Amino acid sequence: MTTTAPSASRAAEILSRPVTLNGLTVPNRIAMAPMTRMFSPGGVPGEDVASYYSRRAAAGVGLIVTEGTYVGHESAGQSDRVPRFHGGEQLAGWAKVAEAVHAAGGTIVPQLWHVGMVREQGEPPYADAPAVGPSGLRLDGTEGTGRAMTRSDLDDVIGAFAAAAADAERIGFDGVELHGAHGYLLDQFLWAGTNRRTDAYGGDPVARAKFAAEIVAAVREAVSAEFPVIFRYSQWKLDAYEARLAGTPEELEAILAPLAAAGVDAFHASTRRYWLPEFDGSDLNLAGWTKKLTGRPTLTVGSVGLDGDFVRAFAGEGAAVGSIDNLLDRLERDEFDLVAVGRALLQDPEWAAKVLEGRFTDLAPYDVASLKTLS
Ligand SMILES: Cc1cc2nc3c(=O)[nH]c(=O)nc-3n(C[C@H](O)[C@H](O)[C@H](O)COP(=O)(O)O)c2cc1C
Predict the structure, then answer these.
(1) In ligand 1, which atom is closest to the CA atom of 182?
(2) pTM exceeds 0.85, yes or no
């Protein structure tokens, strides 16, 4: 790790390098992390959503990963204000979002989402649908109000992800991201804490990855060979930040290898602080390990630009964990390929432009009030 503050030109030079994910060239290394905003009544993303994303693309974000958007399965979601990725009006709204982002010079993928057993109470149009998951368990291990998935449930959900991916390509998106993180449906299968199945979809890490791998394969089949498929996963879960999918690199490899073999083009390794080493004996973070184990490009994420040290380092006050130096060093040695930015980009739509142009002292600290509006 370097100990001097980076020059603006070093940040610009490293972050401005294009990167290829299968058939997609992303113009730079800055991605917007997926963030649920609940500004899409009836599941329809409107013009305000299109300008929210295109404003950030115009200001230098190379790849936008949209907020999670429900696939077409009756139990996929729980809020009528979260955008859906099925239905005529909903997809027409999404097509306009993609068009606006392209017009602004960016690239965009929808994050396809099924919440699984996290669904406690539905809202229209599927208020009465049951929650479903691998074993009918909530994340805390208690019996939920829903049920363990049957063979036909599995097939329906696989079909819903494949249909959404085909629609994404048809209406002009640049790829898809499958939400396999944070304790939602796909992660409920990956994680032993919620997957107690005794059939082929439960047991060791390879068996627990089978459902997600079948979804990846079906998605791959539904889209062109060059259309990028990104898989987001995490160790941590909602309300369980210390939970872990894999305690060793070997366990992690057992989970990721079937996903890579099924056709994942890039992994998005979700961590809360990107600078933390994932396993003992190496300072690689989760994205770094993922790249090393699978050979696929990866996105890192977690508190980029939030720590006060990030900004202070820009101002020449030296490097620290979580500083821009640390991030640039890791990018430069190819530990990972893209950097996803969440809250800092909510706070400031111009965050990427300011960083790329070296306007570091204009960066504003994060204020939670930015969650209230879609500006
Ligand atoms: C308001 C909000 C909504 C989020 N919604 C999602 C989501 O829909 N899908 C997802 O994978 N992660 C979601 N996340 C997690 C972010 O993608 C990201 O991983 C996290 O905020 C850490 O990045 P940051 O420190 O740069 O904010 C959300 C985070 C926030 C703050």
Answers:
(1) 11
(2) yes
